[in-house]
UniProtKB/TrEMBL annotation:
Enzyme class (EC, first level): transferase
Pfam families noted in UniProt: AAA_33
NCBIfam families from the UniProt entry: therm_gnt_kin
UniProt-recorded name of the protein: Gluconokinase
Family: Belongs to the gluconokinase GntK/GntV family.
UniProt organism field: Castellaniella ginsengisoli
The EC number(s) this enzyme carries: 2.7.1.12
Keyword set, alphabetical order: ATP-binding, Kinase, Nucleotide-binding, Transferase
């Protein structure tokens, strides 16, 4: 695995459209997307892209100061992530990225049309607790959790989506994600 920068399913929608080699692990901060994404990439033998590593210094500073990012703040970030996904899709790639809004997900799909998403859903209190436990070592403060939930447009009706409860054990999440990718790669190849 190359690293760049650094339960049971709740729902499985549009499975036949799931690609076998390009996946975004998405969710609010504290949902576990970096941990699940990195471990899933390792398990698959794919490249892992840590989305947070592509934020500008200005975006990091803004979040560290407790100010939520705007759509404009995210534009160049999403464009860079889309290019990275496209560059590595043939080799197999997992990206950790909040992808909170449908427009953000569509922007990533513009680079990799059959891009799949694994949505790690987490409760607000659990997300806040997880983010607070990171302490000073992380740029994202727990005070911004409410803004993440306010921005979230759940991808319930989007194709190529696996919806998991991120409060389940990590190994169960990884097994379910890997099984979904394998099952749907066969459907995609048929």
């Amino acid at each position: 695995m190359q690293k760049i920068a650094l339960s049971s399913p709740v729902g499985d929608t549009g499975a036949p459209d799931c690609p076998s080699r390009a996946v975004v692990v998405m969710g609010v901060s504290g949902s576990g997307k970096s941990t699940v994404g990195e471990r899933l990439a390792l398990r698959q033998g794919w490249i892992f892209i840590e989305g947070d590593a592509f934020h500008s210094k200005q975006n990091h500073a803004k979040m560290q100061a407790g100010t939520p990012l705007t759509d404009e703040d995210r534009e160049s970030w999403l464009e860079a992530l889309g290019r990275e996904l496209a560059r590595h899709a043939a080799a197999g790639v997992v990206l950790s990225c909040s992808a909170l809004k449908r427009a953000y997900r569509q922007r990533l799909r513009a680079h990799v049309p059959d891009l799949a998403f694994i949505w790690l859903e987490v409760g607000r209190d659990e997300a806040r607790q997880r983010v607070a436990s990171r302490g000073e070592r992380h740029f994202f403060p727990a005070a911004l959790i409410d803004s993440q939930f306010a921005a979230l447009e759940p991808p319930h009706d989007e194709a190529g989506l696996l919806h998991l409860d991120s409060e389940h054990p990590l190994e169960a999440l990884l097994a379910q994600a890997a099984e979904w990718l394998q099952r749907n790669s066969h459907a995609h190849d048929a």
